[in-house]
């Protein structure tokens, strides 16, 4: 019981964040669209699709590797927007997946995108390809496809590991414009070095709201950002108070101790 009472502030903090998110969602539903800063990588999607259309070459999309997860679903959300643009311009697409459960979802997402664009007749099930779940076999298959079909644009979004540079260098070899993002922070430098545009950190997760401009998604995004700002400010405030009251023992300030994660 004492443990619960020591953490009352945490409950209040979480409730305040939830209230902020709901408030921003309500504001968005009223037509007051919040401001989201420009994300160059997402704004370049139209440019990449347009270039592929002019060159008459396909667009390649890869939603990462690894086990089926929310990360791959987020990548599919981004790809749905790309596919809708490609459909309007009659640009061929190639969507390669390395996870069996994602294969059916990817086909359904592509079919829905073509139907939403009013061109269901252009949908070709072979545009979505399940290659293999083996990491470097998948890397070799995708690289071969890039070279054979001379893709004009590549979208690499999701969880990537050592194969990230293989994809990026191969696409660079055929002159493709590349937009990439990896949830593995160790792979981000490779994408930055080899790709034209890179989504870094939370930009990947904010992409759906940024592209759709849907009020609920944008309100939720802004509300979470406010929560992060509040958390950072609390940490800074706690650090300043502990620094100013250096003669006190850490145990004398349990709230700040918990906030700074000093209490076991």
Provide a descriptive summary of the structure in words.
The protein has 264 residues and is α/β, with parallel strands linked by helices. It folds into two domains: 77 residues, no CATH class; 173 residues, NAD(P)-binding Rossmann-like Domain (Rossmann fold, 3-Layer(aba) Sandwich). The protein contains twelve helices and six strands. Strands 3-2-1-4-5-6 form a six-stranded parallel sheet, sandwiched between helices. α6 links the parallel β2 and β3. The longest helix has 30 residues. It is globular, with a radius of gyration of 23 Å. It starts with a helix and ends in a 5-residue tail after the last helix.
Q: Largest beta sheet: what is the strand line-up?
A: 3-2-1-4-5-6
Structural class: alpha/beta
Q: Provide the gyration radius in Å.
A: 23 Å
- The total number of structural domains is 2
Beta-strand content estimate: 5-15%
Question: SSE order, as H and E?
Answer: HHHHEHEHEHEHEHEHHH
Low-confidence stretches: none
Mean pLDDT: 83
> What general outline do the C-alpha atoms trace?
globular
| CATH superfamily label of the largest domain | NAD(P)-binding Rossmann-like Domain
- Tell me how many strands there are: 6
The CATH architecture of the largest domain comes to 3-Layer(aba) Sandwich
How many distinct helices? 12
Largest sheet: 6 strands, parallel
Could you tell me the CATH topology label of the largest domain. Rossmann fold
Name of the level-1 CATH class of the largest domain:
Alpha Beta
Specify the helix fraction band.
55-70%
End-to-end separation: 16 Å
């Amino acid at each position: 019981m004492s443990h619960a009472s020591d953490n009352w502030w945490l409950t209040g903090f979480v409730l305040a964040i939830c209230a902020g998110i709901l408030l921003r969602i309500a504001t968005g539903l009223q037509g007051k669209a919040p401001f989201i800063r420009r994300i160059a990588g997402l704004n370049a999607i139209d440019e990449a699709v347009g270039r592929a259309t002019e060159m008459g070459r396909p667009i390649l999309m890869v939603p990462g590797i690894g086990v089926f997860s929310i990360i791959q679903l987020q990548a599919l959300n981004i790809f749905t927007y790309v596919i809708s643009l490609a459909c309007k311009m009659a640009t061929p697409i190639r969507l390669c997946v390395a996870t069996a459960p994602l294969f059916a979802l990817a086909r359904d997402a592509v079919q829905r995108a073509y139907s939403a664009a009013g061109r269901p007749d252009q949908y070709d099930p072979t545009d979505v390809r399940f290659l293999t779940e083996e990491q470097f076999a998948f890397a070799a298959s995708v690289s071969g496809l890039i070279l054979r079909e001379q893709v004009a644009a590549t979208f690499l979004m999701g969880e990537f590991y050592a194969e990230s540079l293989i994809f990026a260098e191969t696409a660079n070899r055929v002159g493709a414009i590349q937009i990439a993002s990896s949830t593995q922070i160790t792979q981000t430098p490779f994408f930055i070095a080899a790709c034209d545009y890179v989504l870094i950190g939370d930009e990947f997760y904010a992409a759906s709201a940024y592209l759709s401009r849907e009020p609920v998604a944008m309100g939720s995004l802004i509300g979470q950002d406010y929560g992060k700002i509040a958390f950072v400010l609390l940490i800074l405030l706690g650090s300043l108070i502990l620094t100013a009251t250096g003669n006190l023992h850490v145990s004398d300030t349990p709230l700040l101790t918990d906030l700074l994660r000093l209490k076991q």
